[in-house]
Amino acid sequence: MIWGRRALQHVKRFKRLPFQPEGLHRCMSAATQNLVVEMDGKSGVAVVKLNKPPVNSFNLEFLTEINILMEKLENDKSCRGLILTSNNNKIFSGGLDIMEMYNPQPDRLAEFWRTLQGMWLSLYGSRLATIAAINGHSPAGGCLTALSCDYRIMAPGFTIGLNETQLGIIPPFWFVESMINVTGQRQAEVCCQKGLMMTTEQAHSIGLVDDVVPGEAILERAHNEMKNWLKVPDFARQLTKRQIRKPTMDRLIAKRDEDIQNFVQFITKDSVQKAMGVYIDQLKNKAKK
Ligand SMILES: CCCCC/C=C/CCCC/C=C/C(=O)SCCNC(=O)CCNC(=O)[C@H](O)C(C)(C)COP(=O)(O)OP(=O)(O)OC[C@H]1O[C@@H](n2cnc3c(N)ncnc32)[C@H](O)[C@@H]1OP(=O)(O)O
């Protein structure tokens, strides 16, 4: 993983925090600044709850925190599975922090995007069995995070989708490929071009979500499903996953710098900044009502 200077500063700070999953046994919980982690040493399953109010939006620091945790879990031989959910029972994740993209400093903007790429690469390519327990709304970057897992369970009454085009932005190719790989080409064409935010039931009907379970039962269902995934020998499951996901990951690895340049160039355009300003005003005004 390639880290920027600012992210490395954050890593040093984070390393002093108490969470150390290696060698943990039985149930242990730990919290970093924006993540609640419950590690069951017996089953080897870590439950990670996104816990960054108000909407679990991903800024540079939060993404860095997630990347560090992923690295720790990957290196912890006792950990076999990861259930990703939210500590907020209404919002899984509001996606990327829009404030990172408004009036940005180009260096930080580039670092932000590289760190997001890093998060996607580590979650999409994780050796762990990964289940998203989507217990709230999940637009854009929230949807990408869920798409990066092996299995998705969603509570009814919420919405999910790659809605970038609705905001006048273009979902990068690795967002779109993540959707294609889950729903198939035709469904991905429709929902990515139209920027559809789908209800839980609509997402289930196109295969974006594998299972629909009431919010209060979602974690229990995720643990039961995890047992099925962990019945398969890890090595066989991991290599099969790698075989299937490697071409998509390799495309981003080969174009990582180009993808960052495209992103920075696009976001810093006057027209995009203007549209972003209008969108932020709408969000803030809606929140005030
Ligand atoms: C070929 C060239 C390619 C170039 C590449 C270019 C590409 C760019 C790609 C970029 C990809 C972008 C991905 C993204 O993820 S963009 C973010 C998209 N997310 C959204 O649009 C979500 C917006 N938020 C909502 O829809 C709702 O807030 C909600 C998440 C459904 C929650 O609703 P509710 O519970 O009613 O809460 P509020 O709306 O009242 O919001 C509470 C406060 O949170 C702030 N907020 C909400 N979302 C975000 C966000 N994403 N980032 C930062 N802040 C957010 C909101 O403003 C409220 O703040 P306030 O209390 O201070 O007013």
Automatic annotation (TrEMBL):
Q: Does the keyword Acetylation apply?
A: yes
The lineage's top-level taxon is: Eukaryota
Asked if the record carries the keyword Mitochondrion, the reply is yes
What GO molecular function terms would the record report?
delta(3)-delta(2)-enoyl-CoA isomerase activity
Pathway it acts in? Answer: Lipid metabolism; fatty acid beta-oxidation
Query: Which reaction(s) does its UniProt entry say it catalyses?
Result: (3Z)-decenoyl-CoA = (2E)-decenoyl-CoA; (2E)-tetradecenoyl-CoA = (3Z)-tetradecenoyl-CoA; (3Z)-octenoyl-CoA = (2E)-octenoyl-CoA; (3Z)-dodecenoyl-CoA = (2E)-dodecenoyl-CoA
Q: Which GO terms describe its cellular component?
A: mitochondrial matrix
TM spans, by residue? none
| Subcellular localization, as worded in the UniProt entry | Mitochondrion matrix
- SUPFAM superfamilies linked to this entry: ClpP/crotonase
For this UniProt record, the keywords arranged alphabetically read as follows:
Acetylation, Fatty acid metabolism, Isomerase, Lipid metabolism, Mitochondrion, Transit peptide
Q: Which terms under GO biological process does the entry name?
A: fatty acid beta-oxidation
A Pfam cross-reference name: ECH_1
Relate the protein's function as given in its record. Key enzyme of fatty acid beta-oxidation. Able to isomerize both 3-cis (3Z) and 3-trans (3E) double bonds into the 2-trans (2E) form in a range of enoyl-CoA species, with a preference for (3Z)-enoyl-CoAs over (3E)-enoyl-CoAs. The catalytic efficiency of this enzyme is not affected by the fatty acyl chain length.
- Description of how the protein assembles with itself and partners: Homotrimer.
Its family? Belongs to the enoyl-CoA hydratase/isomerase family.
Q: What is this protein called?
A: Enoyl-CoA delta isomerase 1, mitochondrial
Species of origin reads: Dreissena polymorpha
